[in-house]
Each structure stands twice: as C-alpha cells, then as structure tokens.
TrEMBL record:
It comes from the Archaea. PROSITE patterns: RECOMBINASE_DNA_BIND (PS51737), RECOMBINASES_3 (PS51736). SUPFAM superfamilies: Resolvase-like. InterPro entries: DNA_bind_recomb_sf, DNA_bind_recombinase_dom, Resolv_N, Resolvase-like_N_sf, SSR_resolvase. Residues 177-282 form the Recombinase domain. This is Recombinase family protein. Residues 23-169 form the Resolvase/invertase-type recombinase catalytic domain. It comes from Halomarina ordinaria.
C-alpha cells in the first residue's frame, strides 16, 4: 500500500483472487499529515486488510481521509464511503479503531443505525466491535462513548493549558498581534517598527474616518501586514478594536492590565472607538465614497471587462 495523494482523492478498488463470505470496505483516517508510525493511513489499511483475510472477507474498496478531524462529517472520502454503503457495494466496513470512524458518539450512533438499515455491519480491527449482534451493538455504544469522553478530556486539557499560559500573560499561538513580537518564554514584547505603524493607523483613521482609506494607504506604502495577505478593511478594524494596545490583556477568560504591553494612550484609543461607532449613536447617513476609491473600483471593473473581452477574442481565434 502507498500513501500518495491519488489514493486519498479517490477510493481504491482492490481485486482479490480469493472470494470470502462477505465483501468488505476499509476506511482509514489521520488527523494530521505527519501522523506517527502505527497510526498512519498505510498502517491502518494494512491492519484492516490483515483482519479481513483472517476472517475470509474480500476487500473491495479502500477509502482514505488524510489530515481530517474525526469530528467533521463532511470528510471527502467518508462521504463517498457512505454513498457506496447505501448503494450496497459492500457488506461490512472495517476500520482500525472506532475513533478513526468518528469522534462523536451522537454521530457514531446515528451512523450505526443507518448502516444497519443498509445491511452493512461495522467492524474494528483493534476493538471488540461487531454490530451484527445485540452484544456487539452494546459494545459499540460503550466504545463510542469512550471515544467522545477522550475527546472531551483533550479539550479540557487544552483549555487548562491555555489558561495556564494566560495567567502568565503569555501569547497562546505562534502569531502575535501586529505591533508585537513573541519572546522565547512566550510573552510579548513591543516591535518598535510595527508599533509605529499601529499609532499611524489610529491617527490616520481619526483624520480620514475610513478604514478602507487607511487600508488603501497602507498597501500603497507596502507596509507588511505580518501575513501573506494585503491590508483590508477587516485587518484595519482588527487593529482599531484590539484593547491589547492599551495594555488590556484578554486570553482564555483571563483579563488583566499589563502595562508593558501598552502601545497607545487611552485618549487616542477611545477617540478611534467613538469615530468607529459614530453611526450607531446617530441617525446620520454614512458619507459618500471618496473619489479615489471610486476611481480604483472603476479601474478594477474595466480591467476585468477587458480581460473578459480578450478571453472571448482568443477563443474565437
């Protein structure tokens, strides 16, 4: 078995010279692209095929979902497998472990009822799971419950770890807010160059009263965003509403005043909020779009139309 993308994008049809008493489909899933040995897609498929040979089942299909969460229902190959099961293309679905099939008990139990209606049994290669009997169905629900319990424990441990970081005023991910750098100990420090642009954004917004105009000027000056995308109204709004710039730290339900994170004085920040929410407090109409923005939009539309015409001429030739 190989783990190339071809097998991930489409179900693999497997020919067998030995006819078993039932036809089987194998479903394998990993939650990350670099899952370790013993849990990889190839290892899962190998273990499932070995179990099918032991039981005399002919493996007719293999469905693979790589780097997809078990809590997601719309997994590409999972959906194809469901359609094949409903169409009666196999008699039993084999997976390495129930949590490869589903991490949600409600989802798993609902699916088990559907498979039963379709006349398709479920079988785990590593657990005592066989839904063809009442005892097997009881075990199925217990194992599904354990899988969801484990998922909830992981969520709780993650939340606890996040809370522990927040209590030390550390930043919880690798990308700090614009205006800051993340130190080796996890805390933030002010990036002087980006901090200068943060202040510029607030002051310019107070002058022009337009987030779109501020974004346009930032892009004209090739100011780095910290990401691969350009400045937009949303990215400017994110900066204008970030209370971290006045030292108000808020992560994982931890809210605290951290003076060393302050970039702006309260007066500048408050003025920007008043301008940003001015239309909520009054019945006044929004100002008309500025002329240079109109010109930019018109130029973009004309360019798209010209490209459309050129495509039509090329097709005619």
């Amino acid at each position: 078995m190989t783990g190339d993308s071809e097998h991930i994008l489409a179900p693999q049809r497997i020919a067998s010279d030995e006819l078993g008493e039932a036809s089987a489909a194998v479903y394998a899933r990993t939650s990350s692209a670099n899952q370790r040995f013993g849990h990889s897609i190839d290892e899962q498929v190998r273990a499932c095929c070995d179990r099918c040979r032991l039981l005399g089942w002919e493996v007719t299909h293999v469905f693979r979902d790589e780097a997809v969460s078990g809590t997601e229902i719309d997994r590409p190959m999972f959906q194809q497998m469901l359609h094949a099961a409903e169409a009666g293309h196999f008699d039993v679905l084999v997976f390495w472990k129930l949590d490869r099939f589903s991490r949600s008990i409600m989802h798993a139990v609902k699916l088990e009822r559907s498979f039963r209606t379709w006349g398709v049994a479920l079988h785990s290669a590593t657990e005592h799971l066989d839904t063809t009997t009442a005892t097997g169905q009881f075990n199925f629900r217990n194992i599904a419950n354990a899988a969801e319990f484990e998922r909830e424990l992981i969520k709780q441990r993650t939340a606890m770890g996040m809370k522990a970081l927040a209590l030390e005023h550390k930043w919880p991910n690798s990308r700090p807010p614009f205006g800051y750098a993340k130190r080796a100990d996890g805390r933030l420090e002010i990036d002087l160059e980006e901090a200068r642009w943060v202040r510029w954004i607030f002051e310019t917004y107070l002058e022009y009263k337009s987030m779109a105009d501020v974004a346009h000027m930032l892009n004209d000056q090739d100011v780095p965003t910290g990401t691969s995308t350009a400045w937009t109204t949303n990215t400017v709004r994110t900066i204008l509403t970030n209370e971290l710039y006045v030292g108000q730290y808020s992560v994982a339900d931890v809210e605290d005043d951290v003076p060393e994170y302050r970039l702006l004085d309260d007066e500048l920040f408050t003025k920007a909020q008043r301008v940003r929410t001015r239309f909520r407090r009054t019945s006044g109409e929004r100002p008309k779009m500025r002329q240079h923005r109109k010109e930019t939009l018109v130029e973009g539309i004309l360019q798209q139309y010209e490209e459309y015409l050129e495509t039509g001429r090329s097709a005619a030739d």
